[in-house]
Specification:
There is one protein chain. By secondary structure, this protein is α+β, with helices and mostly antiparallel strands. The protein is 36% helix and 23% strand. It has ten helices and 22 strands. The two termini are 15 Å apart.
């Protein structure tokens, strides 16, 4: 809040301008309530039901779980689930002004709970602001509506450009490995690898993890063509020796074999060795006289081969979300017999990947700048500077 409020602006708290309300609705109790009135949850529209809780427009804020602190402005004759909270503007408070003000608050300072964060009105209702007269609120809202409309258009264009950059590389990758080439030869993975196998989780699970020691690679660490160090677990040497998993070596290819991330693949980085994998990750150790690790990784992450891997995990027409050792051993790929040709392909793909990554960084920075612009405009609005 500014040191001195503009003329006719009053110092208030959030509790002075908004009343709260609660909802007792849960999604699993609305199965037999189909109708025409929208009910909203943290992710937006849940369904349409045959009743509503609010006759007039209102604000809603996520108070529990993912997205906590996110604010919505909803239309009359609608409802929200119990994971959100109603907020009603008081007399002489423009609802859009209150909506924008809520967006300017950093609700992280009010988070409670470690696993599932939540916020309480009793805590954040003491947020301070200076409230202009209603006519001034309406003027500010008109400015913010227009500014945010333009920012949203710029954001959507940037997101589209970001998606195009990602698709550009995937398209090139698909082209490289989908086409038939007379100089390429088919092999089963078992014929060109010296090891295919997964590991296990140490006794005690997460309680046995240490802050340092031997890396324990899990599916969360394996992304397509990228190893993510965040969340990397460690175990001591005794725990590592007791595991059924094999030791990781340089040039091993990591492949997720179960769960939602099945078929994600990358080359193990040297800075995590010594390492083991748990039961959700398989190592594929290429015989380098046949195929390079980078070439194999690019191949397995191309759409053509990834689709085939996912199909390999199907069971009776439904995705089973699991790849077996025997299935991987018999999995057929086509590669150039000439290692120099493999190196050339990898070099071309790395150049394209580097270019598209730079594009992605540019667009991600633009998205960040647009969010910063929004906060800057909000700060000026509520400091009486618009």
């Amino acid at each position: 809040m500014p040191n001195k409020a503009p003329a006719n602006w009053e110092e208030k708290t959030l509790g002075d301008i908004l009343d709260k309300g609660s909802s007792n609705l849960s999604a699993n109790k609305l199965n037999n309530c189909d109708g025409i009135y929208p009910v909203y949850g943290a992710g937006g529209l849940v369904k349409k039901i045959n009743f509503y809780q609010q006759e007039q427009e209102y604000l809603a804020i996520i108070k529990d779980g993912a997205g906590v602190g996110r604010v919505y402005h909803y239309e009359p004759k609608t409802s929200i689930l119990g994971t959100l909270q109603y907020l009603f503007p008081k007399k002489n408070v423009n609802i859009r002004f209150a909506y924008y003000y809520l967006q300017s608050i950093d609700f992280k300072k009010y988070y409670q709970g470690a696993a599932i964060p939540h916020i309480y009105y009793k805590d954040y209702k003491f947020e301070q602001l200076i409230l202009p007269p209603l006519s001034e609120q309406e003027r500010i809202v008109r400015i913010l509506d227009k500014a945010f409309e333009n920012i949203e258009k710029a954001k959507q264009n940037t997101l589209q450009n970001l998606n195009n950059a990602k698709e550009l590389f995937e398209s090139h990758l698909k082209t490289f490995f989908e086409k038939s080439n007379s100089d390429w030869r088919e092999y089963r993975l078992i014929d060109i690898t010296s090891k295919i196998g997964s590991g296990s989780t140490p006794l005690g699970g997460k309680k046995s993890y240490t802050n340092e020691g031997i890396s324990l690679i899990r599916s969360m660490n394996v992304h397509d063509r990228q190893f993510v160090h965040e969340g990397l677990a460690h175990i001591n040497e005794q725990q590592a020796n007791e595991l059924n998993g094999v030791t990781i070596y340089e040039n091993d290819v990591l492949l997720n074999i179960t769960g939602a991330s099945v078929a994600r693949c990358c080359v193990v980085p040297n800075n995590v060795i010594p390492a083991r994998v748990n039961q959700h990750v398989s190592i594929i150790r290429p015989r380098l006289e046949y195929v390079s690790a980078k070439f194999l990784c690019y191949l397995l992450t191309s759409k053509y081969y990834k689709d085939r891997l996912l199909k390999e995990g199907e069971d009776g027409g439904a995705t089973r979300q699991a790849l077996t050792k025997s299935g991987l051993e018999q999995f057929v790929i086509s590669i150039p017999e000439d290692l120099n040709m493999q190196e050339k392909v990898v070099g071309q793909l790395e150049k394209i990947h580097e270019y598209t990554q730079k594009l992605e960084q540019t667009y991600n920075q633009k998205l960040k700048s647009l969010e910063e612009l929004k906060q800057s405009i909000l700060q000026k609005a509520f400091n009486g500077e618009l």
